[in-house]
UniProtKB/TrEMBL annotation:
<feature type="domain" description="RNA polymerase sigma-70 region 3">
    <location>
        <begin position="135"/>
        <end position="199"/>
    </location>
</feature>
<dbReference type="Pfam" id="PF04542">
    <property type="entry name" value="Sigma70_r2"/>
</dbReference>
<dbReference type="InterPro" id="IPR013325">
    <property type="entry name" value="RNA_pol_sigma_r2"/>
</dbReference>
<dbReference type="Pfam" id="PF04539">
    <property type="entry name" value="Sigma70_r3"/>
</dbReference>
<dbReference type="InterPro" id="IPR013324">
    <property type="entry name" value="RNA_pol_sigma_r3/r4-like"/>
</dbReference>
<feature type="compositionally biased region" description="Basic and acidic residues">
    <location>
        <begin position="15"/>
        <end position="41"/>
    </location>
</feature>
<keyword id="KW-0805">Transcription regulation</keyword>
<protein>
    <submittedName>
        <fullName>RNA polymerase sigma-B factor</fullName>
    </submittedName>
</protein>
<feature type="region of interest" description="Disordered">
    <location>
        <begin position="1"/>
        <end position="41"/>
    </location>
</feature>
<dbReference type="InterPro" id="IPR014284">
    <property type="entry name" value="RNA_pol_sigma-70_dom"/>
</dbReference>
<keyword id="KW-0731">Sigma factor</keyword>
<keyword id="KW-0804">Transcription</keyword>
<dbReference type="InterPro" id="IPR007624">
    <property type="entry name" value="RNA_pol_sigma70_r3"/>
</dbReference>
<keyword id="KW-0238">DNA-binding</keyword>
<dbReference type="InterPro" id="IPR007627">
    <property type="entry name" value="RNA_pol_sigma70_r2"/>
</dbReference>
<dbReference type="InterPro" id="IPR000943">
    <property type="entry name" value="RNA_pol_sigma70"/>
</dbReference>
<feature type="domain" description="RNA polymerase sigma-70 region 2">
    <location>
        <begin position="53"/>
        <end position="120"/>
    </location>
</feature>
Length: 247
């Protein structure tokens, strides 16, 4: 007699996934994924299905962080990578607030790290980038409280750091956007590229002249006179040592 394998009953899928509990039906699958061994043959298909299930969440979050300097495809790709990392690290005992309470901060953090590391025109240390973000937020708060733009010392007190660090971060903020060398200045002025100086060939020779002067000063008077006549008076030394030294 042939036995018929009974498949597990499929849970009804919600018609929409809006609200903070829109993905609660996937929590049992998340727990099952977290408890599987890496070499479990059932882990791969379950993982892929969960990624597909949470893709609407990823698209919704990525649209909130679109910028003029980054394409929507780049942000979506970064958000998807954040989802995959979050699924692989999911701990049902540590996660609170349902699946979204863990996945949303993880995906958002991946997007923000990408924007922080790829939005600056020049390479700036990470600590200055993070401090500059705090300065922007503190500036808005203090401006509303003080009725004027805050001083660096006031920003430092608000952020719990030193005034020197705030000044350095403010200087780093000037590197957030690069200016084009071909954009004309105001009132028809020359472009920045036209106003930049060329390389001065005498700069390298300046240090050599100083070193040469120090070496000449320690020479005996006769040898200094020979150098003066040879290189500045175009005089040549005779090959006959018994003759007069100079022509």
């Amino acid at each position: 007699m042939r036995t018929q394998t009974r498949l597990p009953a499929q849970r009804p899928q919600p018609t929409h996934r809006d609200g903070p509990h829109g993905y609660d039906d996937l929590e049992p699958d998340l727990r099952r994924l977290a408890g599987m061994e890496p070499d479990d043959p059932a882990r791969g298909p379950l993982r892929e299905r969960l990624i597909c299930e949470f893709l609407p969440l990823v698209r919704n979050l990525s649209r909130r962080y679109l910028t003029a300097t980054h394409s929507a495809e780049d942000i979506l790709q970064v958000a998807t990578l954040g989802l995959i990392k979050a699924l692989d690290r999911y701990n049902p005992d540590a996660a609170t607030g349902g699946p979204l309470g863990y996945l949303i901060p993880s995906i958002r953090g991946e997007i923000l790290r990408y924007l922080r590391d790829h939005s600056w025109a020049l390479r700036v240390p990470r600590d200055l980038k993070e401090l500059s973000i705090g300065i922007n937020r503190a500036t808005v708060t203090l401006t509303q409280q003080l009725g004027r733009a805050p001083r660096p010392s006031e920003l430092a007190e608000e952020l719990g750091t030193t005034t020197a660090d705030v000044v350095e971060a403010l200087g780093a903020l000037e590197s957030y956007r690069a200016s084009s060398l071909d954009v004309p200045g105001s009132d028809g002025e020359l472009t920045l590229g036209d106003r930049l100086g060329d390389e001065d060939p005498d700069l390298e020779a300046a240090s050599m002249r100083d070193e040469l002067r120090d070496r000449i000063d320690v020479l005996p008077p006769r040898e200094r006179r020979i150098l003066l006549l040879r290189f500045f008076c175009q005089r040549r030394v005779r090959s006959d040592p018994l003759a007069t030294v100079w022509d």
